[in-house]
Amino acid sequence: METTLRQLANLPAPKTTTLQNVARCLLGTFMVAAGTGHLTFVRQDFQAQVPDFVPMSKDTVVLLSGVVEISLGLALLLLKGKNRVRLGLGLAAFYAAIFPGNIHQYTQHLSAFGLDTDGKRLGRLFMQPVLIGVALWSTGAWKALRKM
User: Fold this and answer.
1) Sign of the C-alpha dihedral, residues 125, 136, 26, 91?
2) DSSP SS3 for 112
3) DSSP letter (8 states) at residue 50
4) Which residues are bridge partners to 115 per DSSP?
5) Which residue in 15, 41, 76, 134 is a FRET match for 25, CA 20 to 30 A apart?
6) Is the pLDDT of residue 58 over 70?
7) Can you give the pTM of this predicted structure?
8) What is the pLDDT of residues 68-99, one digit of tens each?
9) For the chain, what is the largest distance between any 2 Cα atoms, rounded to a whole number of angstroms?
10) Which of 94, 90, 84 is nearest to 20 (CA)?
11) What pLDDT digit, counting tens, does each position of 130-146 carry?
12) Any residues with CB less than 8 A from the CB of 32 and at least 6 apart, and which?
């Protein structure tokens, strides 16, 4: 396991295409906007996603995750080279970590962000793997992982 983590930390930075760079910038902009929303205008909606088993106040979780999202978004926009691969892996892990919140919103039938039916909330669950894929692909992490 330790060897695998060390290998992941030292993955070379593959060259990314213009399309990957555009996708990465769009994802970074989306993350900054979402993080800003966590701290301001949709703060209450984000609280609907925090599962009840999380041992902190929902507002604290929303604020902390907002800071993380802004940081990841800015990193997507600014980091270069090998750091992008690491960032892609970290962002994919972040998306996986927050997925239980999307499941919570669906299973508890909580309306937020215009997701006011179970069908809309279910559809949103399928977007998380897409975000993970875009994070890995746009940063070159997907290509680097395949070369391991």
Assistant:
1) positive
2) strand
3) S
4) 112
5) 41
6) yes
7) 0.90
8) 999 999 999 999 877 898 899 999 999 999 99
9) 45
10) 84
11) 999 999 999 999 998 88
12) 69, 70, 73, 74, 77
